[in-house]
Specification:
This protein is mainly β. It contains one helix and 25 strands. The protein is elongated. It starts with 10 loop residues before the first strand and ends with a strand.
Length: 384
């Protein structure tokens, strides 16, 4: 027997409580990872001051991109969200800055989409698919805010799709739905493991970055067409807040219900880009927690054969690894050599891989071919 789900009629189960429709899709509907802000491997509170150009990751897969002089904010996980969600990501202004007029200042929340998760939209062809970006947002400041969907690559520059959204009532959750037409003329830089696209939400923006046209594809070459207007400057008000959750980017022309995935599945999607050995509630830091325990064999008085740790998932690429000492030593693991625990002289990665971590230990006073205990933690970063 076969069952056909046709159009929007769908299939309703006997208890009447669930319905699957062809329009709702199956599998990886939402190309945004951790859109419900449930995974926070790096911690849950991020006070940021004196930011320069670059990225600081917050809730998994979301990062700040900023270049400014005086603006500062704290980002945190809060249990304040619209019905159906548990957490949101909250920005609180801690140092103000007037809206700049020249190019060179912006402050935004971003997430990049990997090429493998974007390739089926067929950008750069006549079959380029439409998509919908939806999210829930809340702010203590009302007005029109700026944001952009950005396609990487292209000639002569990346393509931007600026849009605005309005928060009419302060401290009230509002759902925003943005339809984005497929780009038939430009393919992304990567349809494999590189960045294909990204979404950016701005809370501070120079006038020089707001030269684009809203609701259409712009060529972001010599001009900075990230937005069509500067929008609300959250940093004009000390203590001002802005929150977001339920971020979804899906193929199609109609926004559908949020794509809830099991927590374990969402965590694995995040671990393709970032892995830590710490417990879920422990932010990575030297001396923050008990470490991974293992044994290694010395091949002379100062060096050893390392241990191999397999990542829970294959990472996007060979990651950058950072080591954390259990007893507070920075960047090295601890070794037990009979007279107590002490920091190793060096902890390095041997033969880096996207599937496993080979830890190589250097320490003085070892006996060749003797076995020793070691303990430590690590993070592995393969973000886009």
């Amino acid at each position: 027997m076969s069952v056909v789900v046709d159009g929007s009629n769908g299939l309703t189960f006997n208890d009447g409580t669930a319905q699957v429709t062809a329009a709702s899709g199956f599998g990886f509907k939402n190309r945004i990872i951790n859109g419900a802000m449930n995974i926070w491997q790096r911690g849950t509170n991020f006070p940021q001051t004196g930011l320069s150009f670059g990225s600081v990751y917050l809730a998994d897969r979301f990062y700040i991109e900023s270049t400014n002089s005086t603006a500062a904010a704290t980002w945190s996980q809060v249990q304040d969200a619209p019905a159906g969600f548990t957490y949101s990501l909250k920005q609180t202004v801690t140092a103000t800055q007037a809206a700049p007029t020249a190019t060179g200042h912006y402050y935004g929340l971003c997430q990049q989409i990997e090429g493998y998760n974007f390739a089926d939209l067929a950008y750069g062809t006549a079959q380029a698919a439409s998509a919908v970006l939806s999210f829930w947002v809340k702010s203590s400041v009302t007005g029109t805010f700026s944001a952009s969907f950005i396609l990487t690559g292209g000639t002569p520059g990346e393509k931007t799709y600026p849009f605005t959204y309005t928060i009419a009532a302060s401290n009230t959750w509002t759902q925003v739905i943005i339809n984005i037409p497929g780009n038939t003329s430009t393919a992304p830089t990567s349809v494999t493991i590189g960045a294909a696209a990204r979404v950016e939400f701005y809370t501070l923006l120079s006038a020089g970055y707001a030269t684009g046209t809203a609701g259409t594809w712009n060529t972001n070459a010599s001009a900075n067409q990230y937005a069509s207007t500067q929008g609300v400057n959250l940093f004009a008000t000390s203590g001002a807040t802005w929150q977001i959750t339920g971020v979804q980017f899906e193929k199609g022309s109609t926004a559908t219900a949020f794509d809830y995935r099991p927590y374990s599945a969402e965590l694995q999607l995040c671990q393709r880009y970032f892995i830590k050995s710490f417990e879920p509630g422990t932010a990575p830091a030297n001396g923050a927690a008990a470490g991974i325990n293992g044994t290694f064999t010395a091949y002379n008085a100062t060096n050893s054969y390392g241990i191999v740790l397999t990542y829970p998932v294959q990472m996007r690429s060979v990651p950058t690894v950072a080591f954390y000492g259990v007893n507070g030593a920075t960047g090295v693991w601890d070794v037990y050599k009979g007279a107590g625990w002490g920091a190793s002289t060096s902890t390095t990665v041997n033969s880096p891989s996207s599937t496993c971590l080979s830890v190589f230990i250097g320490s003085t006073g070892m006996t060749a071919w003797a076995s020793y205990l070691l303990s430590g933690n690590y993070t592995a970063n393969a973000e886009l």
